Amino acid sequence: MTTYNWDEKHIIRFPEKNVALETKDLHVYYGQNESIKGIDMQFEKNKITALIGPSGSGKSTYLRSLNRMNDTIDIARVTGEILYEGVDVNRPDINVYEMRKHIGMVFQRPNPFAKSIYRNITFAHERAGVKDKKVLDEIVETSLKQAALWDQVKDDLHKSAFTLSGGQQQRLCIARAISVKPDILLMDEPASALDPIATMQLEETMLELKKNYTIIIVTHNMQQAARASDYTAFFYLGDLIEYDETIKIFQNAQLQSTSDYVSGRFG
């Protein structure tokens, strides 16, 4: 049985000008249990970063912390800094609703609203006071085009979102998230409920989106991480073990534990 030195780490840093988001000494506690153990990490702008690791490694918990989704869990406590545009968005005085316009999220399973395709996109804008139909039409078209869904639904915009396939629903959720023009898009295993064809379409959409967005994705699929990401971070037991360019993680990892995980020898 292989014994790993989990105190050994290999973590890249980026020049300050290229950093879209950064965490410093980030801890997450669920009651007395420390789920995330003081992670320092930077994400490069307009790149896709994959977070990988076995179940229970903390990758989804870490991801949800980046736009304060853990606030909805009563026993969760998050300490440390989450720096976006030089502002610590983990401060208690931060307007979380406004912050999430800049750091959006797409969840594991498609969660369209029980509304039309059109109103899934416009709902937040209408609530914010946008009434001009021409403006709303433009938001819908632009968002659906960026999510690679426009050509498939442009003649059915007023049909229920539930008439779409699972893959289409997930891309609708992406369109809804990017309609408010966030800088960063968080994705928590967005392909886990999708078939292989829909997964490939989603990955193609992500590669197109990174022209305008920084994407951070949790995935349990090693092939997906290898295909779709620029950088990969390996999590284990709530800690960040290795973080580097994806090609290095999969072909020339610095640590044996990382090499064993991505090759399927443990985890």
TrEMBL record:
<keyword id="KW-0547">Nucleotide-binding</keyword>
<dbReference type="Pfam" id="PF00005">
    <property type="entry name" value="ABC_tran"/>
</dbReference>
<keyword id="KW-1278">Translocase</keyword>
<dbReference type="GO" id="GO:0016020">
    <property type="term" value="C:membrane"/>
</dbReference>
<dbReference type="InterPro" id="IPR003439">
    <property type="entry name" value="ABC_transporter-like_ATP-bd"/>
</dbReference>
<keyword id="KW-0067">ATP-binding</keyword>
<dbReference type="GO" id="GO:0005524">
    <property type="term" value="F:ATP binding"/>
</dbReference>
<dbReference type="InterPro" id="IPR017871">
    <property type="entry name" value="ABC_transporter-like_CS"/>
</dbReference>
<protein>
    <submittedName>
        <fullName>Phosphate ABC transporter ATP-binding protein</fullName>
    </submittedName>
</protein>
<dbReference type="GO" id="GO:0035435">
    <property type="term" value="P:phosphate ion transmembrane transport"/>
</dbReference>
<keyword id="KW-1003">Cell membrane</keyword>
<dbReference type="GO" id="GO:0016887">
    <property type="term" value="F:ATP hydrolysis activity"/>
</dbReference>
<keyword id="KW-0813">Transport</keyword>
<dbReference type="GO" id="GO:0005315">
    <property type="term" value="F:phosphate transmembrane transporter activity"/>
</dbReference>
<keyword id="KW-0472">Membrane</keyword>
<feature type="domain" description="ABC transporter">
    <location>
        <begin position="21"/>
        <end position="262"/>
    </location>
</feature>
<dbReference type="InterPro" id="IPR005670">
    <property type="entry name" value="PstB-like"/>
</dbReference>
<dbReference type="InterPro" id="IPR003593">
    <property type="entry name" value="AAA+_ATPase"/>
</dbReference>
<keyword id="KW-0592">Phosphate transport</keyword>
<dbReference type="InterPro" id="IPR027417">
    <property type="entry name" value="P-loop_NTPase"/>
</dbReference>
